[in-house]
């Protein structure tokens, strides 16, 4: 079934302005996503895409570069006729700088012209796809030339902001304040691309469109929850960014905490942006803060040393280009958190993420309690497997439930088997990229899958004390795990202390 059948309304005609249009994100994600939306008939009839950056390009240079990008990174193969139609709506403005007001005056004039020539009706979607240093200059310059307001009644202006959103609580608050000084919160769309992943959205469908699991989705039936977001890649060519940031800021504060909120939230009264986000914030605020003792005992940080990944020898983090030879940046974090509310009190949520782990996998394991009485001999002889619900986010989207069944034969012997749902087996069409969904939602004005200011601050409030404590503590003894392994042994001990062990669907 084509994706168009699922869309209840088509986005308004609009101009999207991409700041940082010469960058990696635009090439690898944004333009392929926009082209995919176009080829699926999900963009409006009238639109314009205006690239804005300091690169000295013409409209044609931009079109050619984007064509190459879509050919290289696109999910949808490039079709010459469709590309030419699409590319006719691509435009470019070369700026002196992101705080250069004359450029924004030119931008305003260009947008007014596009309203005339392309019929974009005064609607503007601004996308800050630059490094974070440029976020405030972009926002304030837009405000200074009046581009934070629509040029006419009935039109809209929205702002999409990329990650990272701050580096701690104080900087996130300051960034929110600066942006909200210019744009109303209802205009602001903070991206977390994990929320655009199909299998992440399915967490909501799974929980709130089925009556089967919700009655047992609580501390009475669930023993523990595990979230693994593992990457086999290293720091790649992003050392300049990553070495200042580390895994806690890069992955845990945003992506993993978003997964926690979706697993743990109460059912919202409706599938409306405010209702959903209210419930997510409640989860974040109910998490027990990490005190000094918890930081020492319930959070493990690691950094990879040399090792072997996918059968190839790889360098250690400190040997990566652009990384200081004595860097103490963590490339791995595992932690245990507790949500202090009636649904979850006392249930450990274990989270782990890291680079240079054996394979790329994002998965949530919901581990149910054992039956209260073991009546079968076989169960007494060997510890019976618990039911585990595996919610698989990537690379294989789906879900699996392990259940114990009788092995055919004369005796009552049990074995766990998997009841599987796999997207690829059930649906014919390809799964959209996260940025397709998020761009479309921002264009439609649906903020459900975007992060509200209070969400980002609640998450930073949890982790800022951790970052500060790490600064005070003696430097960690890094590297402490070899590339190609599942992280430092302390991460296993964290669970073993409670009689638990990390679980993944396929080891
Ligand atoms: N790349 C990716 O896959 C992902 C990126 N992101 C986020 O998206 C944003 C953009 O990422 P990415 O495209 O990789 O970044 P880039 O480093 O490629 O920067 C994008 C563009 O911004 C301009 N730029 C670079 N440095 C600065 C600076 N210090 N001040 C102002 N402008 C600058 C450059 O354009 P010019 O010099 O021509 O003006 C550059 O082409 C970041 O916030 C990143 O965290 C999020 C998820 C994935
Ligand atoms: O935001 C980020 O995410 C990627 C991982 O994203 P995924 O969609 O491939 O799981 C991570 O590699 C990067 O360091 C981080 O900035």
UniProtKB/TrEMBL annotation:
This enzyme's EC code(s): 1.1.1.49
CC per GO annotation: cytosol
Catalytic activity, reaction form: D-glucose 6-phosphate + NADP(+) = 6-phospho-D-glucono-1,5-lactone + NADPH + H(+)
One Gene Ontology biological process: pentose-phosphate shunt, oxidative branch
Family statement: Belongs to the glucose-6-phosphate dehydrogenase family.
Protein name per its UniProtKB record: Glucose-6-phosphate 1-dehydrogenase
Keywords: Carbohydrate metabolism, Glucose metabolism, NADP, Oxidoreductase
EC supergroup of this enzyme: oxidoreductase
Family annotation (HAMAP family): G6PD (MF_00966)
Positions of substrate binding: 193, 197, 231, 250, 355, 360
PROSITE patterns per UniProt: G6P_DEHYDROGENASE
PANTHER family: GLUCOSE-6-PHOSPHATE 1-DEHYDROGENASE, GLUCOSE-6-PHOSPHATE 1-DEHYDROGENASE G6PD
Organism: Ardenticatena maritima
Binding of NADP(+), residues: 20-27, 54, 163
